[in-house]
Amino acid sequence: MMKTKLTNYLWPVLALCLLTLNNAHAQDTPPDTIADRKMDLTPTLGKKDYDDRGEEIKYPRVFGGLTFTRIDWGFSRLIDDGSFNLSEENQFLDYKKASNFGFDIAQIGLRFTDQFKMYLSTGFEWNYLRLKNNVILDQDATTLTYSASDVAYKKNILTSTYLRVPLSFEFRTRKNKHGDRAKIAFGAMTGILLKGTQRLKSEEFGKQKYRDNYNLATFQYGAFARVGFGSLGVFAKYYLNDMFENSPNQQNLSNFTFGLTLGF
């Protein structure tokens, strides 16, 4: 199964990064103070996981508050029963491009040492599916159904909006001579569906927007990994649940996303 294969692909990456963490910089780590932070790209309101008074930090340290960080922007691929090719039943969902965007707005966690912390955060996440076909998804349908349209749509986008809640375990190297660090984070994520939207644009009717849950999964869950240096990084997320619920034809249709992270 593709789910097992993709999960297995993450482990070599994590193992390599952890090996790097263990072997990096044998010297003692300088105290983590505000003076060492040359540029903080993560606006945060609340207790930080470093000492904002310029004093040496003491561990363990609880931190948390409002934030605006881990801004993800990337591409998505639908996986249909272990394949990147859609089955005949799901050809109406064939897409030109699929993308993912999200960010965190609040967090609470515990930094155990200078190199390891864990935290629970929450934010928002959007998935965009730019459909190739001129189809209109039926609203309030018991299962996911659609109607073919004679209109040639310039845009036909299915958007899902989720409240995301990831649990992260983050490691970082000791600082190099420039005060920079490499980081790796991984963990589990879940999300609650806030709304679904289909946006259409055509010469005949202009812009149209319809809101419905479109049988999108009420809850989504999966695993993620991030690797970065400083405030920039890359991410990969794999959603273990089906993208749609109560829809037998869409069983085992899931989502895989990857891209760039700012504020990591």
UniProtKB/TrEMBL annotation:
Pfam families from the UniProt entry: OMP_b-brl_2
Taxonomic lineage: Bacteria, Pseudomonadati, Bacteroidota, Sphingobacteriia, Sphingobacteriales
Signal peptide annotation: 1-26
Name of the protein described by the UniProt record: Outer membrane beta-barrel protein
Organism: Sphingobacterium suaedae
InterPro entries: Beta-barrel_OMP_2
Source taxon at top rank: Bacteria
Residues covered by the Outer membrane protein beta-barrel domain: 81-240
Alphabetic keyword roster: Signal
